[in-house]
Amino acid sequence: MASQTVPEALTAPTQTFDDAPPFPEDVPTAPLLRLSLARLLDRDTQEIDRFVRACEDLGFFYLDLTGPGDSLLADADQLFEVGSELFELPLEEKRKYDFMHKNSYFGYKGYGANVVDRSGNLDRNEFYNVSKDDILGISDPWPAPGVLDARRPLLKSFISSAHGIVTLVLELLNDHLKLPPKTLQDMHRLEGHSGDQVRFIKAPPQPRDDRRTALGEHTDFGSVTVLFNRLGGLQVLPPGRDAQWCYVKPLPNHAIINLGDAMVKFTNGLLRSNIHRVVAPPGQQADRTRYSLVYFNRPEDDVLLKRLDASDLIPPLDADEVEEEINSKDWIIRRALGHRIAIFGKEAFDYDRIKGTEDKSQRAYL
Ligand SMILES: O=C(O)CCC(=O)C(=O)O
Ligand SMILES: [Fe+2]
After folding, report:
1. What are phi and psi of 257, to 5 degrees?
2. Where is the composition biased (Polar residues) (predicted)?
């Protein structure tokens, strides 16, 4: 089981992000495996075995991008700068790009706009979502501030490279599951219409005597997430009845990769979409502003989120189980906007209303 694997983060190079204080040694860290992009591209069988184990046990792993992922790392570095510039804009300006009343999760979400738990506490971060389809010119463009419009070529480059990582993950899973060739890849084409997005996130330091959850616990809504962290604060809840929240230690030159709800639905829970959240960075890092950068990949808009029946490895549904008929587009909108207090008021507290795949993903361990 994943919680018994060696925490490979401990064998990784020491953190060298800017001048940030080090990630503390005395906090619980999550047992993510550390995989190499170069070895996966070489189809190294041991690395692929570890990859499959990571996707089934924890649904989270580190991916060392050194070498074949150098340009993605360079783009991510530049986008961290863009993110800090973006959030410097005056609040009135940023608010012009909140499109929630157009039933869209693209654009800006202000600080405290989402409920983070059943008691109604509010989030402590702001973020901005940029649509892949907009940047690739295959949908109508959303209005955007100049700082983003000026960076469309950089965003395009980042999206193409991050999507390349996603396609590799899907291809390896497709092969492992013995699905007909390209089953998963064809549901996630770069040029297909989807809710794929780049997300910039900013969480300012919290008061010392009042540090709370910045981003509430959730599973990601889509298929594959490619995440870049500089400071700690991300936590996962490993499988197991008595599991405790563990930090994911950021590693230089690595992305954090995790699977989302769609992969759980396609495989009826064989693959994991692990619960995670963001709290204040640990130790001395808590006094820093935390930025993060994410590429969220989702199935194309019209893909039905149901068990795939073309693989003997995918467990059957329970005898009395009837799957909801919902396509990817509607699923993502429901999950992404469901906790917005300005839209749903008190209903935003009701976590069961817009549940992800937590139950199915956890079921083997309950
Ligand atoms: O900021 C992070 O490290 C994680 C963010 C996250 O989980 C999300 O936006 O879904
Ligand atoms: Fe997430």
Report:
1. -115, 135
2. 1-17
Letter string b/e over residues 32-42, b meaning 16 or more CB atoms within 10 A of that residue's CB? bbbbbbebbee
| Mutate which of 278, 289, 293 for ligand 1 pocket (most atoms within 8 A of beta carbon) | 278
Q: Which is nearest to 25 in space by CA: 257, 285, 219?
A: 285
Q: Which ligand is nearest to the CA of 230?
A: 1
- At 364 the pLDDT is 45
Q: Which ligand is nearest to the CA of 229?
A: 1
Q: Are 200 and 128 in contact (CB under 8 A)?
A: yes
* Residue 10: band (very low, low, confident or very high) from pLDDT cuts 50, 70, 90: low
Q: Which residues line ligand 1 (CB under 6 A)?
A: 199, 201, 215, 220, 227, 229, 234, 276, 278, 292, 294
Residue with the smallest CA separation from ligand 1 atom 8 is 220
Residue 320 Cα, ligand 2 centroid: separation in angstroms? 31
Q: How far apart are CA 215 and CA 126, in angstroms?
A: 10
d(CA 194, CA 28): 36
What is the C-alpha separation between 230 and 218, in angstroms, rounded? 21
pLDDT tens, residue by residue, 256-296: 999 999 999 999 999 999 999 999 999 999 999 999 999 99
Q: Residue 201: in which H helix or E strand, if any?
A: strand 197-203
| Residue environment code for 186-211, b if the CB has 16+ CB neighbours within 10 A, otherwise e | ebbebebebbbbbbbbbbeebeeeee
3-state secondary structure of 332: helix
Please tell me the distance from the alpha carbon of residue 309 to that of residue 363, in angstroms, as a whole number: 20
Given a cut of 60, whether residue 57 has pLDDT beyond it is yes
**Domain 35-312+322-365 belongs to what architecture?**
Sandwich (2.60)
β-pair partners for 122: 115
**Amino acid at site 330:** D
Torsion of CA 223, 224, 228, 231, to 10 degrees: 60
Q: Output the pLDDT for position 2.
A: 44
- 40-49, 100-109, 314-323, 343-352: least confident range: 343-352
Nearest atom within ligand 1 for CA of residue 234: 3
